[in-house]
Each structure stands twice: as structure tokens, then as C-alpha cells.
Amino acid sequence: MKQFLALKASAGSGKTFALTVRYITLLLLRAKPKEILTLTFTNKAANEMSERIYHTLLHLGEDEAYLNEIAKESGISIETILLKKDALIKDYTNATLSIFTIDKFVNMILREFCGYAGVSDDFEIKEDDIESLSAKFLESLDLQSFDKLIDFQIYEKKKYSSLFDIFQNLIEKNEDIETVDVDATLITLQKKAVLDKAYKIKEFILNSPVASNSAKNAVDFDSFENLLKRGNTWLGKEFASEFSYFKKCSNELLEEFFQETKKELAIYYKIRAAYSLGKLFELYRLFKEYKKSFNISKNYLHFSDISNLVYELLSKKIDKEFLYFRLDSKFSHILIDEFQDTSLLQYRILQPLIEELLSSNEFNSFFYVGDTKQSIYRFRGGKRELFDYVSKTNPQIEVEVLNTNYRSSKNIVEFVNNSFINLPSYEYYEQHSIHQDGYVEVLEDNALLEEEKYVNIAKKISQLMQSGVNSNDIAILTYTNDDVLNIYSYLKKMFPTLKISTEMTSRLVNQENIKALINMVKYLYFKEEIYKENVNAILGKEPGSELKIDVDIKQKSVQETLYNIAKVLDIVDENIIRVIELASSYKNIVDFVYEIDKLETPIENQEQYGLQILTIFKSKGLEFHTVLLVDRIKQKNSDKSSLLFEYEGVELKNIYYKISSLENYNEEYKKALEKEKSLNYEDELNILYVALTRAKKNMVVFKKTKSSVFDLLDLKVQTLGEIVKSSNLTINHEKSEKVIYKPLNLGLQDKPMQIEDDEKEYSLYSRYFGIATHYCLEMMNEFNEDSLNKALNLTKSRFSSYLGDSDFLNIRNRVLALLENEKFLSLVSDGEYDKEQALIYKGELKIIDLLVKKDERYYIFDYKTTKEESKEHEIQVSHYKNALKDIINSSNISTYIIYLKEKESFLKEVN
């Protein structure tokens, strides 16, 4: 095994395979699981990685590819590996794993050292309340600072909200720069100096006998602002003679006046840029300090706040040894997935740990894998340049390229090769496919520019299904969430029986049925016709259509009101039910009307399977039998950010405040703009690369006839190969009956979960959920809600690396249900109890979840988080009873299994 290795893994080239092999190889070489820090970028990826390793260990020997590669990497014979299989499984399943998202790892560090950062250990993680934070910041400013902010807004013609966005951006990047305090009067004086020189040009042109009316009109200015407006066509020229209207009357004197004006303008822009940047950062530093105190007072942090605090801790307040001591683990091995998406701040946090591994003589390793061509999150801070920077600045790291594509068919791979390999200044390694055939079609779609944009997409779906492609195997990739919703709505009308799922990050309140519901509530509340017409438009009704809803919104509960309205409008679906569930947090309909638009909860998938519609960004890391790739419908929004960050490699070189025409007078700024333009171009190519590498068998590209994003690749209309049928021939694209919701329940029915036996056996997630639930109950000093809340905070601190917020809410609901169980409370009330009571019986260790002694009788309770009862559970608690019976020499024992469900709990007595 190469100790320090970086893998450039193109799409479909076996990245996850390589990571899994590396991890198991380390286990074979006697590395402990908790010492192998494995970092990914999403919870889904972290869970899949831990499950993949577990599944591979369980089936080691069945897959020759894994076994041979592990033997090769470890230098251990296949026979020896198989002999160690059971021990590896036992070590892995009993260990505390160090497989995290980077965010969770950073969060874990802060929770351990929160006292050093001045924050409470039970802080919440959530999005900033923009309205409250911005308003409170304004209130915190003294009169002098407030005046500075207002002056800056007026001078820069900026709304406060956009200024607030700049502050947030600076905090996320955690970048600062030395600024100069420029007196505003210097700008006024310099404007006058520019005008003095420019008036000489004006006088020269007006007095020239050969000057045209167009030339004279070009110098028709009487103020500095008017000069910039009139001179926007000629001030940017290098010489006066380059401006066509000045050419006839140009001579040395005019050129002299022109160059003097340019020189004074360059000074003006230098002062102006320094002034703007200085004033901005003065205000930003005030905001940064206030935000820190605001977050502490509210006991919540944004992810960017957590990263900033941890970076400060590791760089100034704690050393590595103390870090390892508090985390109860020294990381001897680091594996990082999707390294091209790492931000500079994240890398700076990890850098001390990485450098220690690279410089140590002990048994350790560093491995990272990624693909700069799939770097599409630069807008979130992803820094693809880090991939090469780390390997080049650490020569002991070897770099290998994976160039065999195991995902896509031959025609798709060759199509992608031909599209990218000849692009100038774009790093692309030709890929080879192990598969044959495949289908590629690029078609020009005029409809994408018309009102009925998606008609040809619907026709192609119909054609594919008639050609033997199952609708469950089809994915439509788009550029925006708006496109997803629009295509979804169109296809639901065209194929009413078709199952369609959407992988959305869009907010729940943006879904059509939810919009209709909210507008109907607002109509009933405000009595304004616009809301009624919004409902008509959303539901496809004629303008002016009557909407008869007899609901007293002020007398009924919010949840009942929403349900009744949705039922009359016939829009009840999973998303409506989700909103009804969330509505319990609103005290009354007034709160709902004024607060619902702030709801950040994401949209629910319409179905669990079926034809899928998702954005290219959400498709990253996924693969589909058949892909329909849709052109960018609307032109990309122009970059309206006020700051330009220029990096030299991975080091910040400069921050510029964007000013119109500054590039004509500042060469460094001009180069920075060109560099940013080049990065934006590469971003677009990377998005296309991700999109074109998701298909396994069939790919259809819908290209606009003009202004197409595919023009970047010069894609031509073409067809390669023949459509590959689905291997699953079952007709399963027909929509099943609607889910029926019971009005009184106002939620999804709690049906027994059907889980395959192998899923029960292999799910690490289920294991951690069960352990966390038991731990929460163990940490409760009393069986009441206050004790539950305290225990839950401890549980979050311990298990936040494995479970998400929704899981902890699930645990809370299950324990709350137990606390409402009258039979359980009557049995434990006034009793003496021990939790996690250990018993040694016939040489075996038995652990009783809860042992209660009351009135000379013992009660054994065993917690279960599974949804199904099992005979094995009864056998297990019977063993506990027999053990305790022999130890205390008494039969005065009752045993119960407690089934903890999310909405109820029940006790089953075992005789």
C-alpha cells in the first residue's frame, strides 16, 4: 500500500471501490477503526461509506475484484485475509467509527472545546435568522457607526440587504485584508483634478474645425459623473486616436490631454477603490463582532461560524496533542473523499493533522481522492486548486489517475471523450469503457424557446418507454429547481398515471400545492382578491372562478384549518401533510399567515421511485440507466457580487471592491477579472462534464437552437448506437392508488416497516439509532421531560457524527411516547432502578436496560426501537429473568419488552 496517495478519479472510475479497498487494507494492517479519519461531504455519502465497508467485509471472498485488490494493496495472502474476516467484522462493528462529513467533524471539535471558544456545549446549528440579525445589528450601532453605514449605502447606492449579503460572504470565506483609511474629501479633490484635464479635451474638440457633431456630442459633459457617462465610449481607449470620432482631429496635443486625463482617472480609481474597500471592512468588522455575540446570546451557530471558531481554536488556542486527548483518538490515517470540493477554510483546519502524518515516522497514511472536472461547488467555497497544491507542496504524495470507466457504455464514454479531450487548458484524461454499445442522441429542441417548452421531452419519454426502457430507469437532469418543478408539473399533466420523483433542495413553500394552500389561507384572512386569483392560476382554473370554502379560520386549530382547506381544494399529498405536521409550531392562524413564507423545510419527494427529475448539482455522485439532459432554459444570472477575491494558487492575493470601468485604469484588477472569467468558464465545463457522465446505457441531450450552453462543447446534432432496453421488464411505471390520510391523525399512517432480512443485518444506521436511543434513556435521571431534554443534549454530543437532527427528533418523540405511557409510569414510580445493569450468569455477560425494584418485586425492562415484534426478543428477556432469578434466589420477577415507536409505546409482558 502506498503510504501517501492522491487519486484523480474521473466519473465512474471506481472511486468508492478504491476508498473501500484502502480502508479494509488499513484494518488488515492493524489500524483501529477510530484511528482512521474518513471524511466525506454529505451525510448520505458518509452513511453509504460506512455501510459499503461493512457490507464488503461481510461478503469478503464473494467478490474477486475486492479480494484481489485488497490482497495486492495489503501484501497479505487471500487465505490469510479470509481467516481474519470474522475478526475484522467484529472489530469494525464494535468500534467507534471516525467516518464523518467534514462539517460534522468540525462540529465535533467545537463541542469538545466550546468553553475555549466562549460558546455553550448545547448550541444549536441552524441558518441565520436574517431579519432578526440584521435588525439587531442596526440597533447595536452607535450614532457615529450608524452614520458611516448610511453614508456608505448612499455613496455606493446599495440596499442594506445587499450590504448584509457581503458581510455574510466574508464570514463564510473567513478572509480579511489590510485596508487604508481614505478621507472622502480626497475623492472630491481628485474628481476636480480629472475634470480639469478632461475640459482641455472638450475645449480642443469643440474648437477643432474638423470635429464632427458625434465627436462634439462625445465631450458634452459638465460634471464628473457626466464625463464618465459620455466618456464611456472613449475613456477606456489606450489612445485618443483609437476612438473613431476623434480620429480626424487627433494630434499630439489632443493625445497629451487624453493621457493626462487617463493618468488622473487612474489616481481617482485607486483612491475610490481604497476608500470603498476600507469603509466596507470597517463596517464588516463591526458586524462580525456583533454576530458572534448575537449567536452566543441565542445559543445557535451557522456552519460557517463553527468552521471559523474551530480554525481559530486550532491555530491559536489548542495543540494537536490536546485535540487528540479530548477526542479520545489519535488519527493515524486520513482518507478524504471528493477532495476537489474542499474549501480553503476546511483545508486549513485539517492541515495540521495532515502535515503531522506526512512528517511522522510511525505507521500512518494520507489518502485523498477526487476529480477536478467534477468541481461544481466553487460558489460554496470549493477550491479545486487544492487537489494539485497539496500533492505539489508535499512531494512524498504520489498521484495516480484512474482512467477506466466502469459506469457508462462505450458510445457514451467515447462521446464524452470527443467532447472534452481537445478543449484548450482543460485537464482531461481519455477514458476507456469496459462495456459495449450504448445510445447517445443530441437533438436541437426548438420548443425549449417556446411557451410549451417540454413537449419534446414528453414525446421522448413516451418513445423510450415504447422502446423497452422502464420509466423507473429514466432521469431528467436540469439546471435549476424551477426547471424541476416546471417539468414535473408538465409531465404530471401529460402522464397522469406515471410515477415521478423529484430530488429537490427547493423549499417546501415553493411547491405548487403548498403555494395554493398558503394563498387560500391568505385570501380567507386578508379578503384580498389577488390571493384568490393566485389559487386559480396555480390550480389551472379560469380567472374569476369561485372558490367556496366554508372554514372558520379563527375558530379552528391551524392544523385543522389547513387540512380542511386542502381537502376542499383536492390537493392533499405528501407535501401538504408535511406542512400540516409543521403547523403545530404556529400558535394561531395569524402566526401562520405572517411566518409561513420563512419556512426553510425542503420539499418532500413525491414518490419513492419512478421517473426522476433533479438538478445536475443533485445528480453528482449518482448514475442512471437512461438520462435526458435538458439545456439551460434561462440564461445564467450575471454575477452581482460586490467583491472580487483573487487567489494565487490557494493563497489570497487580493480582495477588490468591484467598480465599473476600474479595469481600464488598474491592470491588476483587470487581470483578476480575467482570471475570474476563466474560472467561471471552467465551472460551466465542469457542470457539463458531471451532467454528461451520469448515464449508463442511454443519453439524450436537448439542445436549444440558440444561446445553448452546449455550444461550449460545440455539440452537433447526432445519434450513436441503438436504445438499450431496461433489464427490468416489469411494467411498473403505472401510478398506484393515492395514499389515504385519516383526518384525525393529520399525519402519515404508522405502518409496519417492511425490511428485508439482509437490510436488518447490514444496517449500521439502525444500529447507531438503537444505541443512541438506549444511551438517551440511560442518561435520564428521572422519567420526565426535563430530564429527557438534558439527556438528549448529551446524546447529540455523542452521536451527532452518525445521526442527523431528524433522527434526534425521532428519538425524542419515542421517549416522550414512553413518558406518556401510564402503565410504564405506574410500574417505575417510587421504585429503585438501575440502568444498563450488568449481570454475570453462567460465564456470560447480560445487560438489562432497566431494572426496577419496588415493593419487594423486581421488574426487568428491555427497550426495542424496531417496528416489528419478534420471538427472539421474548427469548432474550427470558434469559435475563432466569439469570436474575438464580442470582437473587427469588421468582418475584416481572419482565417487559418496551417497543418504542415514534407516536406511541407499548409494553409487552413476557411470562
Salient structural properties:
DNA binding, 5 domains, 6-stranded parallel sheet, 34 helices, 911 residues, 7-stranded mixed sheet, helicase, alpha/beta, Rossmann fold, DNA-binding, ATP-binding
Topology (SSEs and partners):
Elements: E1 4-9, H1 15-28, E2 36-40, H2 43-58, H3 64-74, H4 78-83, H5 85-94, E3 99-101, H6 102-112, H7 114-117, E4 124-125, H8 130-140, H9 143-156, H10 160-173, H11 184-207, H12 213-218, H13 224-230, H14 252-298, E5 300-301, H15 303-317, H16 320-327, E6 333-336, H17 344-359, E7 365-370, H18 385-393, E8 398-402, E9 404-405, H19 410-420, E10 432-433, E11 439-444, H20 455-466, E12 474-478, H21 481-494, E13 500-503, H22 512-526, H23 529-539, H24 558-569, H25 574-582, H26 589-595, E14 611-615, H27 616-619, E15 624-630, E16 643-648, E17 651-657, H28 667-692, E18 695-703, E19 718-720, H29 757-762, H30 764-779, H31 785-799, H32 805-819, H33 822-828, E20 832-841, E21 844-854, E22 857-864, H34 871-888, E23 893-900, E24 905-910
Parallel strand pairs: 1-7, 1-8, 2-3, 2-6, 4-5, 6-7, 9-10, 11-18, 12-14, 12-15, 13-14, 15-18, 22-23
Antiparallel strand pairs: 11-19, 16-17, 20-21, 21-22, 23-24
